[in-house]
Specification:
Elements (H helix, E strand, L loop, with lengths): L3 H56 L16 E6 L9 H14 L5 E5 L1 H8 L7 E3 L8 H16 L5 E7 L9 E7 L24 H85 L1
Parallel strand pairs: 1-2, 1-4, 2-3
Antiparallel strand pairs: 4-5
Helix pairs in contact: 1-5, 4-5
């Protein structure tokens, strides 16, 4: 049986670990709550923009945009979003394995990473990312979403890719906590099949023209899509880390219970041995005293 000093040291180490996991759980929970407001607001805005785009595209025949032009799909690019850090269960590994499978199914596909984990994952497999957005995933602001959307659309406009897709971990609906894939560019009318029709009006006037309105809406739509994906991935990461730290804390509590039982048993064993030694010494001393009397 281990000595009481060893068990006491082990208990102290587990207690320190529990303090860390508790703190990390609280931090992740707080950050997830903060970003939840962004998700709700962006969804409302994003839904209205998509609805308006669908209305223009289905009711007007003389509108067009380069992002709707179909191209021969000779080169696809996957944007993979993960966290910069670990300690979040299978969050990063799940989305990376899903992305790797999709990339292997698409010969010659390009890779764009958002997150240090994704960059290290593909580099370790000899798959060099074309672009790595650094220090983006830990601060998913609208400004940064604009910068990312601008760089991605520039790739498409310059003909460097024919198809852009984003792979991330969803935080909404039935796919919550699972890796999903969103189609970014080129835009297709089928992208709006799930949009509910707006309220029927007798006549809608677009000023200065439907084409001008569409030209303004499309960039905002892409920015909203990128921002929504970024905040979902951010919330999913912290949700996974919160659960992982809670599980670690629960496991630490179980370990502490067992260690305290072992400590009490070891302590009792030590006390019993000491009593036995004292009793033995007393008996020896009594025997010596009796021997001296007979002498």
């Amino acid at each position: 049986m281990p000595k009481t000093n060893e068990i006491r040291h082990h208990i102290s180490a587990v207690e320190q670990t529990m303090k860390i996991t508790n703190a990390m759980e609280m931090v992740s929970s707080n950050r997830m709550r903060q970003v939840m407001g962004h998700i709700e607001q962006n969804n409302m805005y994003f839904t209205n923009v998509r609805r308006m785009m669908r209305e223009i595209l289905t009711s007007t025949n003389d509108v067009s945009h380069p992002f709707f032009e179909s191209r021969p799909n000779e080169h696809s690019t996957f944007v993979i979003i993960t966290g910069d850090k670990g300690l979040c269960g299978g969050h990063n590994l799940n989305v990376l394995n899903y992305a790797l499978k999709r990339i292997n199914e698409t010969p010659g596909a390009g890779i764009i990473t958002m997150g240090n984990t994704a960059d290290d994952f593909f580099r370790s497999r000899g798959m060099m990312p074309d672009i790595n957005f650094l220090s983006i995933v830990q601060d998913p602001t609208l400004k940064r979403a604009r910068e990312v959307a601008r760089d991605l659309t520039t790739l498409f406009e310059n003909g460097l890719t024919d198809d852009l897709r984003i792979v991330f971990t969803s935080f909404l609906g039935e796919t919550r906590g699972k890796p999903v894939e969103y189609h970014l560019l080129p835009l297709m009318l089928s992208d709006y099949d799930d949009v509910m029709e707006a309220e029927t009006l007798s006549e809608i006037l677009y000023h200065p023209s439907p084409q001008k309105v569409l030209d303004i809406l499309i960039p905002q739509y892409l920015i909203g899509l990128v921002f929504g994906v970024m905040v979902q991935a951010y919330a999913s990461e912290h949700f996974a880390r919160m659960n992982a730290m809670r599980s670690a804390t629960d496991n630490a509590e179980d370990i502490l219970k067992n260690l305290r039982i072992q400590y009490n048993l070891a302590r009792q064993s030590t006390i019993t041995n000491e009593i036995t030694e004292i009793s033995g010494s007393t008996e020896i001393m009594k025997g010596d005293a009796q021997y001296e009397q007979y002498q």
